[in-house]
């Protein structure tokens, strides 16, 4: 099994004169600064020929641009005083480069903000363990799962059933964590990074108490940060069974997302109407497909299990919080508008040579 490598940079905590240390059991997983160049092999990714062509056409990814971008972003992480420890595998960096279509400054900004928010909102985004009892309940009952296989465009379909989430039994932290587990698991697959995702959501069972899970400010920050920072390509969104009493909430939510994503959202009055527009083969039998939902869930649990340790190891990534402004640590929208150059550090995004794209 492949071992995820980390780069750990020397960091002196406030009032201390020693470097950050790790337990001996961690050392095989740590990519030390002095051996950086020797332990970063050239990219030999798993993408199919068809997916490579999509990456070239849609994301400006070529062998040349990929090699240059990976080296630049690794150099940037190594020299960035804000980043203490970070994964060093190509697949991890590529999810941000592909997300930002190989714009080095934008990928750096997304990566840095991703690392920061993982740490400052650690109660929701650390310990992404699918074995936690509360997570097991949501997974087993089909709160969200990926349909097995891919559609004709090679995309994975995410089936969401928010009505499974009992707001009297669970809290907003649980909702953030289950989404983190599922999204992080799927983003470990490079085909998903390029091909993207189709979302199918059933709003049945969602009621007014759901509105108490997040304050309006929290909801805005989640949507805005998720769209700018979470490295996923959302290709289509299909929604059925929206409760009439909560339609105004959905309308408000639509005002928060970008026009690009907004154009990809389709809302249907019934499953029958939806089936005229969507690929039913990707849906559970209960929604007009062929495979029973329970079988889909069991298959997806195998995917979650395969990446469980990787997600747990991600908690070793760390930034120096003292070098970030308070609004950035809180995930404020104003920090998103300010960009990656905000703060006390003199280290700027995009400080390396311009990427050559052939």
Describe this structure in words.
InterPro entries: CRAL-TRIO_dom, CRAL-TRIO_dom_sf, CRAL/TRIO_N_dom, CRAL/TRIO_N_dom_sf. It comes from Nezara viridula. With 358 residues, this protein is α/β, with parallel strands linked by helices. It folds into two domains: 6-120 and 320-338, no CATH class; 130-309, CRAL-TRIO lipid binding domain (Phosphatidylinositol Transfer Protein Sec14p, 3-Layer(aba) Sandwich). It has 16 helices and nine strands. The chain has a five-stranded mixed beta sheet with strand order 4-5-6-7-8. The chain has a four-stranded mixed beta sheet with strand order 2-1-3-9. Strand 6 (197-202), helix 9 and strand 7 form a beta-alpha-beta unit. Helix 2 (63-79) crosses helix 3 and helix 3 packs across helix 4 (104-120). The longest helix is centred in the first third of the chain and has 17 residues, at 63-79. The protein is globular, with a radius of gyration of 21 Å.
User: CATH superfamily assignment of the largest domain?
Assistant: CRAL-TRIO lipid binding domain
CATH topology of the largest domain: Phosphatidylinositol Transfer Protein Sec14p
Strands, count: 9
Mean pLDDT: 86
CATH architecture designation of the largest domain: 3-Layer(aba) Sandwich
What separation lies between the terminal Cα atoms?
35 Å
C-alpha Rg, in Å?
21 Å
Which features characterize this protein?
Phosphatidylinositol Transfer Protein Sec14p; 358 residues; five-stranded mixed sheet; 42% helix; four-stranded mixed sheet; alpha/beta; disordered C terminus
């Amino acid at each position: 099994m492949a071992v995820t490598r980390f780069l750990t940079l020397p960091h002196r905590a406030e009032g201390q004169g020693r470097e950050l240390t790790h337990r001996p059991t961690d050392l095989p997983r740590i990519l030390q600064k002095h051996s950086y160049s020797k332990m970063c092999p050239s990219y030999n990714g798993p993408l199919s020929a068809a997916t490579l062509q999509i990456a070239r056409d849609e994301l400006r990814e070529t062998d040349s641009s990929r090699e240059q971008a990976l080296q630049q972003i690794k150099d940037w992480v190594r020299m960035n005083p804000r980043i203490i420890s970070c994964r060093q595998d190509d697949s991890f960096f590529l999810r941000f480069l592909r997300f930002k279509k190989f714009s080095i400054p934008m990928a750096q900004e997304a990566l840095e903000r991703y690392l920061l928010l993982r740490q400052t909102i650690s109660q929701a985004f650390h310990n992404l363990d699918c074995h936690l009892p509360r997570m097991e309940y949501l997974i087993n009952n089909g709160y969200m799962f990926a349909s097995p296989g891919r559609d004709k465009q090679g995309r994975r379909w995410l089936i969401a059933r928010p009505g499974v989430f009992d707001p009297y039994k669970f809290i907003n932290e649980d909702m953030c964590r289950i989404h983190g587990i599922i999204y992080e698991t799927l983003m470990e697959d490079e085909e998903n990074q390029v091909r993207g995702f189709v979302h199918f959501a059933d709003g049945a069972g969602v009621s007014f108490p759901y509105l108490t899970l997040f304050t309006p400010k929290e909801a805005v920050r989640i949507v805005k940060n998720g769209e700018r920072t979470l490295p996923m390509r959302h290709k289509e969104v299909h929604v059925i069974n929206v409760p009439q009493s909560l339609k105004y909430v959905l309308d408000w939510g639509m005002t928060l997302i970008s026009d690009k994503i907004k154009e990809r959202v389709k809302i249907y009055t019934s499953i029958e109407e939806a089936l005229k527009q969507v690929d039913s083969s990707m849906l559970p039998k209960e929604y007009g497909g062929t495979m029973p939902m329970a079988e889909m869930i069991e298959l997806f649990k195998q995917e979650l299990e395969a990446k469980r340790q990787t997600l747990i190891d991600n908690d070793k990534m760390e930034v120096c919080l003292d070098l970030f402004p308070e609004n950035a640590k809180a995930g404020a929208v104003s920090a998103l508008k300010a960009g990656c150059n905000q703060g006390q550090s003199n280290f700027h995004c995009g400080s390396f040579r311009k990427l050559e794209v052939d």
